[in-house]
Amino acid sequence: MYFFREYTKPNKDPSKTDKITRIYNNYSACKCCIHKNNCFTDKQTHRTITENGERMQRVMHHKMEKEEYKEEFSKKPYVEGPFGIFKEQFHIKQEIVIGVVKTEKRLNLDALAYNIKRLYNLKQEKK
């Protein structure tokens, strides 16, 4: 497939980013293809593939094709769980602490509480 053109559609919601549409086509490949009868009618000469999406989504998609990023993002589910629990049970978003040091101390206390609670539950399961 060859890149044909890219254009931007403004999003109706100004807080969101604009949508990007990329169009790919390949006349010569479609001309020689044995499956061209299945893809398009007699009047059509080629097939056009349109890729819709925001720029950040496309960048992320291309990153995920590389092996180093696959390893990095395979760890993500293990980290997402505890952060979800922190937000839900420990009400992190509602905490009022000012400054990086105080926020870091508060998060460390929450993590300690989470780990102690988890260890206690694991011990109870073994008994």
Automatic annotation (TrEMBL):
Transposase DDE domain residues: 16-119
Source taxon at top rank:
Archaea
From the Swiss-Prot or TrEMBL record, give the protein name: Transposase DDE domain-containing protein
